[in-house]
Amino acid sequence: MTKGALRLVLGDQLSEGLSALEGLDAARDVVLMLEVRDECTYVPHHPQKIVLILSAMRHFAEALRARGVTVDYVALDDPANTHSFTSEVARAVARHKPEGVIATHPGEWRVLEAMRGWEDALGVPVEIRDDTRFLASLEFFRRWAHGKKALRMEFFYREMRRASGLLMEGDAPAGGEWNFDAENRKRLPRDVIPPPPKRFPPDALTREVMALVGREFPRHFGSLDGFAWPVTAEQAGQALDAFITQRLPRFGDYQDAMAEGEATLFHALISTSLNLGLLDPRDACDAAEASYRRGDAPLNAVEGFVRQILGWREYVRGLYWLRMPGYAKLNALEARRALPEFYWTGQSGMRCMDAALTQTRDMAYAHHIQRLMVTGNFALLAGVAPDAINEWYLAVYADAYEWVELPNTHGMAIHADGGVMASKPYAASGAYINRMSDHCGKCRFDVKGSTGEGACPFNYLYWDFIARHERRFASNPRMSMPLANLRKMEGAKLQAMQAEAKRFLDKHAPLP
Protein backbone atom coordinates (compact mmCIF):
# COMPACT_ATOMS: atom_id res chain seq x y z
CA MET A 1 0.00 0.00 0.00
CA THR A 2 1.30 3.41 -0.97
CA LYS A 3 1.81 5.47 2.16
CA GLY A 4 -0.39 8.50 2.66
CA ALA A 5 -0.48 11.26 5.25
CA LEU A 6 -0.39 11.05 9.02
CA ARG A 7 -3.29 13.20 10.17
CA LEU A 8 -3.11 14.42 13.77
CA VAL A 9 -6.29 15.02 15.77
CA LEU A 10 -5.79 16.70 19.15
CA GLY A 11 -8.06 16.20 22.13
CA ASP A 12 -9.99 19.44 21.61
CA GLN A 13 -10.40 18.88 17.85
CA LEU A 14 -13.07 16.20 17.83
CA SER A 15 -15.00 17.44 14.81
CA GLU A 16 -15.83 15.45 11.69
CA GLY A 17 -15.25 18.61 9.67
CA LEU A 18 -11.79 19.24 11.15
CA SER A 19 -9.47 20.78 8.57
CA ALA A 20 -6.80 18.13 9.27
CA LEU A 21 -9.29 15.50 8.07
CA GLU A 22 -10.28 17.29 4.86
CA GLY A 23 -9.40 15.13 1.85
CA LEU A 24 -8.83 12.09 4.05
CA ASP A 25 -8.08 8.97 2.01
CA ALA A 26 -9.21 6.07 4.17
CA ALA A 27 -7.22 3.63 2.04
CA ARG A 28 -3.87 5.41 2.53
CA ASP A 29 -4.00 7.87 5.43
CA VAL A 30 -3.65 7.23 9.14
CA VAL A 31 -5.30 9.36 11.84
CA LEU A 32 -3.10 9.78 14.92
CA MET A 33 -4.63 10.44 18.34
CA LEU A 34 -2.55 10.77 21.49
CA GLU A 35 -3.23 10.60 25.23
CA VAL A 36 -0.11 12.07 26.82
CA ARG A 37 0.65 12.77 30.46
CA ASP A 38 2.20 16.15 29.64
CA GLU A 39 -1.23 17.44 28.62
CA CYS A 40 -2.86 16.14 31.79
CA THR A 41 -0.33 17.65 34.16
CA TYR A 42 1.15 20.90 32.78
CA VAL A 43 -1.46 22.27 35.16
CA PRO A 44 -3.17 19.83 37.55
CA HIS A 45 -6.35 19.46 35.53
CA HIS A 46 -9.62 18.56 37.25
CA PRO A 47 -10.21 14.78 36.97
CA GLN A 48 -13.56 15.38 35.25
CA LYS A 49 -11.83 17.49 32.61
CA ILE A 50 -9.30 14.74 31.92
CA VAL A 51 -12.05 12.10 31.77
CA LEU A 52 -14.13 14.30 29.47
CA ILE A 53 -11.31 14.78 26.98
CA LEU A 54 -10.03 11.20 26.99
CA SER A 55 -13.50 9.67 26.81
CA ALA A 56 -14.54 12.00 24.00
CA MET A 57 -11.31 11.15 22.16
CA ARG A 58 -11.94 7.43 22.47
CA HIS A 59 -15.53 7.78 21.29
CA PHE A 60 -14.35 9.88 18.34
CA ALA A 61 -11.73 7.27 17.42
CA GLU A 62 -14.42 4.57 17.49
CA ALA A 63 -16.59 6.65 15.16
CA LEU A 64 -13.69 7.09 12.72
CA ARG A 65 -12.94 3.37 12.74
CA ALA A 66 -16.60 2.64 12.06
CA ARG A 67 -16.18 4.67 8.85
CA GLY A 68 -13.23 2.52 7.80
CA VAL A 69 -10.55 4.99 8.86
CA THR A 70 -7.26 3.66 10.23
CA VAL A 71 -6.67 5.23 13.65
CA ASP A 72 -3.33 4.94 15.45
CA TYR A 73 -4.41 5.61 19.04
CA VAL A 74 -1.81 5.87 21.81
CA ALA A 75 -3.48 5.35 25.18
CA LEU A 76 -2.33 6.97 28.40
CA ASP A 77 -1.36 3.62 29.94
CA ASP A 78 0.47 2.30 26.87
CA PRO A 79 3.88 1.18 28.25
CA ALA A 80 5.62 2.62 25.18
CA ASN A 81 3.98 6.04 25.53
CA THR A 82 6.60 8.79 25.94
CA HIS A 83 3.90 11.24 27.06
CA SER A 84 4.69 14.28 24.92
CA PHE A 85 3.17 15.33 21.60
CA THR A 86 6.49 15.82 19.85
CA SER A 87 8.02 12.48 20.77
CA GLU A 88 4.80 10.58 20.10
CA VAL A 89 4.41 12.14 16.65
CA ALA A 90 8.04 11.20 15.99
CA ARG A 91 7.33 7.59 17.00
CA ALA A 92 4.28 7.52 14.75
CA VAL A 93 6.27 8.87 11.81
CA ALA A 94 8.80 6.09 12.38
CA ARG A 95 6.01 3.50 12.48
CA HIS A 96 4.07 4.62 9.43
CA LYS A 97 6.68 6.42 7.31
CA PRO A 98 4.06 8.83 5.92
CA GLU A 99 4.57 11.24 3.07
CA GLY A 100 3.82 14.05 5.53
CA VAL A 101 2.00 15.14 8.66
CA ILE A 102 -1.21 17.17 8.52
CA ALA A 103 -2.46 19.00 11.61
CA THR A 104 -4.99 21.67 12.49
CA HIS A 105 -3.86 24.89 14.18
CA PRO A 106 -3.93 24.14 17.92
CA GLY A 107 -5.68 26.16 20.60
CA GLU A 108 -2.62 26.95 22.70
CA TRP A 109 0.50 28.93 21.88
CA ARG A 110 2.89 26.43 23.48
CA VAL A 111 1.55 23.62 21.26
CA LEU A 112 1.87 25.74 18.10
CA GLU A 113 5.47 26.59 19.01
CA ALA A 114 6.22 22.87 19.31
CA MET A 115 4.50 22.10 16.00
CA ARG A 116 6.55 24.72 14.18
CA GLY A 117 9.67 22.69 14.93
CA TRP A 118 8.30 19.36 13.81
CA GLU A 119 9.23 19.54 10.14
CA ASP A 120 12.92 19.85 10.89
CA ALA A 121 12.77 17.32 13.70
CA LEU A 122 10.72 14.71 11.83
CA GLY A 123 12.26 14.97 8.38
CA VAL A 124 8.88 15.02 6.61
CA PRO A 125 6.64 17.90 5.49
CA VAL A 126 4.30 19.21 8.20
CA GLU A 127 1.20 21.14 7.14
CA ILE A 128 -0.61 23.16 9.83
CA ARG A 129 -4.05 24.07 8.53
CA ASP A 130 -6.29 26.85 9.81
CA ASP A 131 -8.91 25.85 12.34
CA THR A 132 -12.09 26.52 10.38
CA ARG A 133 -14.49 25.52 13.17
CA PHE A 134 -14.80 29.10 14.43
CA LEU A 135 -17.13 31.78 13.09
CA ALA A 136 -14.32 34.31 12.62
CA SER A 137 -10.96 33.49 11.10
CA LEU A 138 -7.86 34.83 12.81
CA GLU A 139 -7.29 36.97 9.73
CA PHE A 140 -10.78 38.47 10.07
CA PHE A 141 -9.98 39.44 13.65
CA ARG A 142 -6.60 40.91 12.70
CA ARG A 143 -8.23 43.07 10.04
CA TRP A 144 -10.87 44.27 12.49
CA ALA A 145 -8.27 45.03 15.17
CA HIS A 146 -5.79 46.78 12.88
CA GLY A 147 -5.18 50.40 13.87
CA LYS A 148 -7.62 50.37 16.80
CA LYS A 149 -6.47 51.82 20.13
CA ALA A 150 -9.13 49.91 22.04
CA LEU A 151 -10.33 46.41 21.16
CA ARG A 152 -13.83 46.42 22.63
CA MET A 153 -15.83 43.24 22.25
CA GLU A 154 -19.09 45.08 21.66
CA PHE A 155 -17.87 46.57 18.39
CA PHE A 156 -16.37 43.29 17.21
CA TYR A 157 -19.67 41.60 18.05
CA ARG A 158 -21.56 44.04 15.84
CA GLU A 159 -19.23 43.23 12.95
CA MET A 160 -19.85 39.54 13.56
CA ARG A 161 -23.61 40.08 13.54
CA ARG A 162 -23.34 41.84 10.20
CA ALA A 163 -21.00 39.23 8.75
CA SER A 164 -23.04 36.25 9.94
CA GLY A 165 -26.52 37.68 9.48
CA LEU A 166 -27.52 36.33 12.89
CA LEU A 167 -30.37 38.24 14.56
CA MET A 168 -30.40 40.82 11.79
CA GLU A 169 -33.28 42.49 9.96
CA GLY A 170 -31.56 43.61 6.80
CA ASP A 171 -28.82 45.99 7.93
CA ALA A 172 -30.36 46.56 11.37
CA PRO A 173 -30.22 44.38 14.47
CA ALA A 174 -33.38 42.52 15.42
CA GLY A 175 -35.40 44.55 17.89
CA GLY A 176 -33.52 47.74 17.00
CA GLU A 177 -30.72 47.18 19.55
CA TRP A 178 -27.43 45.31 19.34
CA ASN A 179 -27.31 44.37 22.99
CA PHE A 180 -30.03 43.60 25.55
CA ASP A 181 -27.69 43.00 28.46
CA ALA A 182 -29.47 45.60 30.60
CA GLU A 183 -32.51 43.28 30.65
CA ASN A 184 -30.45 40.28 31.74
CA ARG A 185 -29.54 41.22 35.31
CA LYS A 186 -32.41 39.92 37.40
CA ARG A 187 -32.01 38.11 40.69
CA LEU A 188 -33.63 34.66 40.77
CA PRO A 189 -37.01 34.86 42.58
CA ARG A 190 -37.69 32.27 45.26
CA ASP A 191 -40.61 30.78 43.34
CA VAL A 192 -38.66 30.25 40.10
CA ILE A 193 -37.11 26.77 39.96
CA PRO A 194 -34.84 26.16 36.97
CA PRO A 195 -35.21 22.81 35.20
CA PRO A 196 -32.15 20.56 35.48
CA PRO A 197 -29.82 20.42 32.47
CA LYS A 198 -29.63 17.24 30.44
CA ARG A 199 -26.84 15.05 31.78
CA PHE A 200 -25.35 11.81 30.46
CA PRO A 201 -24.52 8.89 32.76
CA PRO A 202 -21.15 7.35 31.87
CA ASP A 203 -21.18 4.42 29.45
CA ALA A 204 -18.76 1.49 29.69
CA LEU A 205 -16.01 3.28 27.78
CA THR A 206 -16.28 6.38 29.97
CA ARG A 207 -16.26 4.24 33.12
CA GLU A 208 -12.99 2.68 31.95
CA VAL A 209 -11.51 6.14 31.52
CA MET A 210 -12.77 7.21 34.94
CA ALA A 211 -11.00 4.26 36.54
CA LEU A 212 -7.81 5.10 34.63
CA VAL A 213 -7.87 8.77 35.65
CA GLY A 214 -8.65 7.86 39.25
CA ARG A 215 -5.53 5.67 39.32
CA GLU A 216 -3.22 8.02 37.45
CA PHE A 217 -4.15 11.39 38.98
CA PRO A 218 -5.40 10.70 42.51
CA ARG A 219 -4.14 14.00 43.94
CA HIS A 220 -5.66 16.36 41.38
CA PHE A 221 -8.24 18.80 42.75
CA GLY A 222 -11.82 17.75 42.08
CA SER A 223 -14.24 14.86 42.34
CA LEU A 224 -15.05 12.27 39.68
CA ASP A 225 -18.37 11.44 41.32
CA GLY A 226 -21.33 12.57 39.27
CA PHE A 227 -19.48 12.87 35.95
CA ALA A 228 -22.17 13.38 33.32
CA TRP A 229 -20.74 15.57 30.53
CA PRO A 230 -21.54 14.90 26.84
CA VAL A 231 -18.74 12.88 25.27
CA THR A 232 -20.08 12.47 21.72
CA ALA A 233 -21.47 14.80 19.07
CA GLU A 234 -24.85 13.10 19.42
CA GLN A 235 -24.97 13.79 23.14
CA ALA A 236 -23.80 17.37 22.61
CA GLY A 237 -26.68 17.88 20.19
CA GLN A 238 -29.12 16.50 22.72
CA ALA A 239 -27.77 18.85 25.38
CA LEU A 240 -28.23 21.81 23.05
CA ASP A 241 -31.78 20.75 22.13
CA ALA A 242 -32.71 20.40 25.80
CA PHE A 243 -31.37 23.86 26.56
CA ILE A 244 -33.19 25.49 23.64
CA THR A 245 -36.54 23.99 24.57
CA GLN A 246 -36.37 24.00 28.39
CA ARG A 247 -34.09 26.80 29.59
CA LEU A 248 -33.36 29.32 26.85
CA PRO A 249 -36.64 31.27 27.30
CA ARG A 250 -35.59 32.36 30.81
CA PHE A 251 -31.84 32.29 30.30
CA GLY A 252 -31.64 35.99 29.54
CA ASP A 253 -33.43 37.27 32.62
CA TYR A 254 -31.34 35.25 35.05
CA GLN A 255 -28.02 34.69 33.30
CA ASP A 256 -26.19 36.88 35.85
CA ALA A 257 -28.00 35.50 38.92
CA MET A 258 -26.56 33.28 41.63
CA ALA A 259 -28.67 31.20 44.01
CA GLU A 260 -28.17 28.77 46.86
CA GLY A 261 -28.34 25.18 45.67
CA GLU A 262 -28.73 26.17 42.00
CA ALA A 263 -25.41 25.48 40.32
CA THR A 264 -26.63 25.69 36.73
CA LEU A 265 -29.78 27.87 36.79
CA PHE A 266 -30.84 28.42 33.15
CA HIS A 267 -27.35 28.11 31.63
CA ALA A 268 -26.67 25.93 28.61
CA LEU A 269 -23.65 23.90 29.82
CA ILE A 270 -22.53 23.43 26.22
CA SER A 271 -19.16 25.18 26.44
CA THR A 272 -17.43 21.85 27.07
CA SER A 273 -18.91 20.50 23.83
CA LEU A 274 -18.12 23.64 21.85
CA ASN A 275 -14.52 23.72 23.04
CA LEU A 276 -13.96 20.02 22.37
CA GLY A 277 -15.38 20.31 18.87
CA LEU A 278 -18.40 18.11 19.54
CA LEU A 279 -20.80 20.98 18.81
CA ASP A 280 -20.61 23.52 16.01
CA PRO A 281 -20.96 27.15 17.23
CA ARG A 282 -22.99 28.18 14.20
CA ASP A 283 -25.44 25.35 14.85
CA ALA A 284 -25.87 26.54 18.43
CA CYS A 285 -26.52 30.13 17.33
CA ASP A 286 -28.88 29.05 14.57
CA ALA A 287 -30.90 26.92 16.98
CA ALA A 288 -31.29 29.85 19.37
CA GLU A 289 -32.25 32.26 16.59
CA ALA A 290 -34.82 29.78 15.25
CA SER A 291 -36.39 29.65 18.72
CA TYR A 292 -36.73 33.45 18.66
CA ARG A 293 -38.17 33.47 15.14
CA ARG A 294 -40.76 30.88 16.18
CA GLY A 295 -41.74 32.97 19.16
CA ASP A 296 -40.55 30.35 21.65
CA ALA A 297 -37.87 32.49 23.33
CA PRO A 298 -37.65 36.26 23.89
CA LEU A 299 -35.06 38.37 22.14
CA ASN A 300 -33.17 39.33 25.28
CA ALA A 301 -32.53 35.64 26.03
CA VAL A 302 -31.53 34.71 22.51
CA GLU A 303 -29.35 37.76 21.96
CA GLY A 304 -27.58 37.15 25.27
CA PHE A 305 -26.86 33.55 24.31
CA VAL A 306 -25.72 34.41 20.79
CA ARG A 307 -23.47 37.18 22.18
CA GLN A 308 -21.63 34.69 24.38
CA ILE A 309 -20.76 32.54 21.36
CA LEU A 310 -20.66 34.87 18.37
CA GLY A 311 -19.24 37.74 20.42
CA TRP A 312 -17.24 36.68 23.48
CA ARG A 313 -16.01 33.28 22.37
CA GLU A 314 -14.80 34.50 18.98
CA TYR A 315 -13.42 37.72 20.43
CA VAL A 316 -11.27 36.11 23.12
CA ARG A 317 -9.81 33.65 20.61
CA GLY A 318 -8.91 36.47 18.25
CA LEU A 319 -7.39 38.53 21.06
CA TYR A 320 -5.39 35.56 22.33
CA TRP A 321 -3.74 34.86 18.99
CA LEU A 322 -3.28 38.56 18.21
CA ARG A 323 -1.42 39.33 21.45
CA MET A 324 0.38 36.11 22.40
CA PRO A 325 2.90 35.28 23.70
CA GLY A 326 3.41 38.67 25.36
CA TYR A 327 -0.20 38.89 26.54
CA ALA A 328 0.31 36.15 29.13
CA LYS A 329 3.18 38.07 30.71
CA LEU A 330 1.25 41.30 31.34
CA ASN A 331 0.74 42.35 34.95
CA ALA A 332 -0.54 45.91 34.72
CA LEU A 333 -1.63 46.07 38.37
CA GLU A 334 1.64 44.58 39.61
CA ALA A 335 -0.22 41.85 41.49
CA ARG A 336 2.10 39.56 43.42
CA ARG A 337 0.10 37.70 46.08
CA ALA A 338 -0.04 33.91 46.10
CA LEU A 339 -3.41 32.22 45.58
CA PRO A 340 -5.25 31.86 48.92
CA GLU A 341 -5.54 28.28 50.14
CA PHE A 342 -9.34 28.33 50.11
CA TYR A 343 -9.39 28.24 46.30
CA TRP A 344 -8.47 24.58 46.79
CA THR A 345 -10.26 23.83 50.07
CA GLY A 346 -13.50 25.75 49.52
CA GLN A 347 -13.37 26.94 53.12
CA SER A 348 -13.18 30.72 53.00
CA GLY A 349 -16.21 31.28 55.22
CA MET A 350 -17.71 33.52 52.51
CA ARG A 351 -20.95 31.91 51.34
CA CYS A 352 -20.63 33.08 47.71
CA MET A 353 -17.00 31.97 47.39
CA ASP A 354 -17.53 28.60 49.00
CA ALA A 355 -20.58 27.89 46.83
CA ALA A 356 -18.60 28.60 43.67
CA LEU A 357 -15.55 26.68 44.88
CA THR A 358 -17.37 23.57 46.07
CA GLN A 359 -19.40 23.25 42.88
CA THR A 360 -16.17 23.74 40.94
CA ARG A 361 -14.69 20.84 42.92
CA ASP A 362 -17.77 18.67 42.39
CA MET A 363 -18.67 19.56 38.79
CA ALA A 364 -15.65 21.23 37.19
CA TYR A 365 -18.15 24.00 36.44
CA ALA A 366 -19.20 27.45 37.58
CA HIS A 367 -21.09 29.95 35.44
CA HIS A 368 -19.60 33.17 34.13
CA ILE A 369 -20.71 35.48 36.96
CA GLN A 370 -19.34 33.14 39.59
CA ARG A 371 -16.04 33.14 37.72
CA LEU A 372 -15.92 36.87 36.98
CA MET A 373 -17.60 38.52 39.95
CA VAL A 374 -16.85 36.07 42.77
CA THR A 375 -13.64 34.07 42.33
CA GLY A 376 -12.22 36.49 39.77
CA ASN A 377 -13.29 39.61 41.62
CA PHE A 378 -11.71 38.30 44.82
CA ALA A 379 -8.41 37.59 43.03
CA LEU A 380 -8.49 41.10 41.56
CA LEU A 381 -9.16 42.80 44.90
CA ALA A 382 -6.60 40.67 46.74
CA GLY A 383 -3.89 41.30 44.16
CA VAL A 384 -3.34 37.63 43.31
CA ALA A 385 -0.50 37.16 40.82
CA PRO A 386 -1.80 36.60 37.26
CA ASP A 387 0.13 33.35 36.77
CA ALA A 388 -1.39 31.88 39.93
CA ILE A 389 -5.03 32.65 39.16
CA ASN A 390 -4.65 31.86 35.45
CA GLU A 391 -3.25 28.43 36.32
CA TRP A 392 -6.11 27.80 38.73
CA TYR A 393 -8.82 28.62 36.19
CA LEU A 394 -7.10 26.53 33.53
CA ALA A 395 -6.84 23.60 35.92
CA VAL A 396 -10.27 23.42 37.51
CA TYR A 397 -12.86 23.96 34.76
CA ALA A 398 -13.89 21.31 32.26
CA ASP A 399 -14.28 23.86 29.46
CA ALA A 400 -10.96 25.67 30.06
CA TYR A 401 -8.35 25.87 27.31
CA GLU A 402 -5.76 28.61 27.29
CA TRP A 403 -7.11 30.44 24.24
CA VAL A 404 -10.43 31.02 26.01
CA GLU A 405 -9.33 31.02 29.66
CA LEU A 406 -6.41 33.43 29.49
CA PRO A 407 -8.13 36.50 27.95
CA ASN A 408 -11.21 36.06 30.14
CA THR A 409 -9.10 35.81 33.30
CA HIS A 410 -6.26 38.14 32.38
CA GLY A 411 -8.35 40.82 30.74
CA MET A 412 -11.81 40.63 32.31
CA ALA A 413 -11.37 39.17 35.76
CA ILE A 414 -8.08 40.63 36.99
CA HIS A 415 -7.38 43.52 34.57
CA ALA A 416 -3.80 42.32 34.15
CA ASP A 417 -3.77 43.56 30.56
CA GLY A 418 -4.28 47.15 31.74
CA GLY A 419 -7.38 47.77 29.66
CA VAL A 420 -6.76 45.95 26.37
CA MET A 421 -10.06 44.12 26.84
CA ALA A 422 -12.04 46.12 29.40
CA SER A 423 -12.09 49.88 29.92
CA LYS A 424 -12.11 49.47 33.71
CA PRO A 425 -11.46 46.70 36.22
CA TYR A 426 -14.50 44.60 37.16
CA ALA A 427 -14.03 45.37 40.85
CA ALA A 428 -17.06 45.13 43.13
CA SER A 429 -17.87 45.08 46.82
CA GLY A 430 -20.29 42.76 48.56
CA ALA A 431 -23.21 44.93 47.43
CA TYR A 432 -23.03 43.52 43.89
CA ILE A 433 -23.07 39.92 45.12
CA ASN A 434 -25.97 40.72 47.44
CA ARG A 435 -27.90 42.28 44.57
CA MET A 436 -27.43 39.28 42.27
CA SER A 437 -27.70 36.40 44.75
CA ASP A 438 -29.25 35.07 47.93
CA HIS A 439 -25.88 34.04 49.38
CA CYS A 440 -25.41 37.02 51.67
CA GLY A 441 -28.51 36.43 53.79
CA LYS A 442 -27.10 33.11 54.98
CA CYS A 443 -23.45 34.17 55.22
CA ARG A 444 -21.66 34.56 58.53
CA PHE A 445 -20.23 37.84 57.25
CA ASP A 446 -22.32 41.03 57.23
CA VAL A 447 -22.60 42.28 53.65
CA LYS A 448 -23.17 45.82 54.94
CA GLY A 449 -20.18 45.81 57.27
CA SER A 450 -16.77 47.09 56.20
CA THR A 451 -14.71 46.74 59.38
CA GLY A 452 -14.60 44.33 62.29
CA GLU A 453 -14.50 40.57 62.54
CA GLY A 454 -17.94 40.07 60.99
CA ALA A 455 -17.56 42.46 58.05
CA CYS A 456 -17.84 41.14 54.50
CA PRO A 457 -14.29 40.68 53.16
CA PHE A 458 -15.35 41.92 49.72
CA ASN A 459 -16.09 45.33 51.26
CA TYR A 460 -12.78 46.08 52.90
CA LEU A 461 -10.84 44.37 50.12
CA TYR A 462 -12.64 46.58 47.58
CA TRP A 463 -11.62 49.82 49.28
CA ASP A 464 -8.11 48.53 49.90
CA PHE A 465 -7.89 47.82 46.15
CA ILE A 466 -9.19 51.27 45.18
CA ALA A 467 -6.78 52.99 47.57
CA ARG A 468 -3.87 50.87 46.39
CA HIS A 469 -4.42 51.90 42.79
CA GLU A 470 -5.69 55.45 43.28
CA ARG A 471 -2.98 57.04 41.17
CA ARG A 472 -3.19 54.38 38.49
CA PHE A 473 -6.94 54.91 38.01
CA ALA A 474 -6.94 58.69 38.34
CA SER A 475 -7.07 59.23 34.57
CA ASN A 476 -9.79 56.63 33.98
CA PRO A 477 -13.18 58.40 33.74
CA ARG A 478 -15.03 55.16 34.51
CA MET A 479 -13.30 55.03 37.91
CA SER A 480 -14.14 58.62 38.87
CA MET A 481 -17.03 57.74 41.21
CA PRO A 482 -15.20 55.24 43.46
CA LEU A 483 -12.17 57.52 43.53
CA ALA A 484 -14.33 60.47 44.55
CA ASN A 485 -15.87 58.37 47.33
CA LEU A 486 -12.42 57.28 48.45
CA ARG A 487 -11.29 60.88 48.78
CA LYS A 488 -14.32 61.70 50.93
CA MET A 489 -13.64 58.79 53.26
CA GLU A 490 -12.24 59.40 56.72
CA GLY A 491 -8.61 58.37 56.99
CA ALA A 492 -9.20 56.28 60.08
CA LYS A 493 -11.94 54.27 58.36
CA LEU A 494 -9.75 53.55 55.34
CA GLN A 495 -6.85 52.54 57.56
CA ALA A 496 -9.14 50.17 59.47
CA MET A 497 -10.31 48.54 56.23
CA GLN A 498 -6.75 48.20 54.98
CA ALA A 499 -5.81 46.53 58.25
CA GLU A 500 -8.77 44.14 57.92
CA ALA A 501 -7.72 43.30 54.37
CA LYS A 502 -4.20 42.44 55.47
CA ARG A 503 -5.42 40.37 58.39
CA PHE A 504 -7.82 38.35 56.24
CA LEU A 505 -5.34 37.69 53.46
CA ASP A 506 -2.55 36.77 55.86
CA LYS A 507 -4.91 34.33 57.59
CA HIS A 508 -5.68 32.61 54.28
CA ALA A 509 -2.16 32.43 52.90
CA PRO A 510 -1.38 29.33 50.81
CA LEU A 511 -1.04 26.03 52.59
CA PRO A 512 2.59 24.94 53.16
Automatic annotation (TrEMBL):
InterPro entries: Crypto/Photolyase_FAD-like_sf (IPR036134), PhrB-like (IPR007357), Rossmann-like_a/b/a_fold (IPR014729), UV-DNA_repair_photolyase (IPR052551). Pfam families: DPRP. One of its GO terms (molecular function) is lyase activity. Gene3D superfamilies: 1.25.40.80, Deoxyribodipyrimidine photolyase-related, DNA Cyclobutane Dipyrimidine Photolyase, subunit A, domain 3, HUPs. Keywords: Lyase. This is Deoxyribodipyrimidine photolyase-related protein. It comes from Roseococcus suduntuyensis.
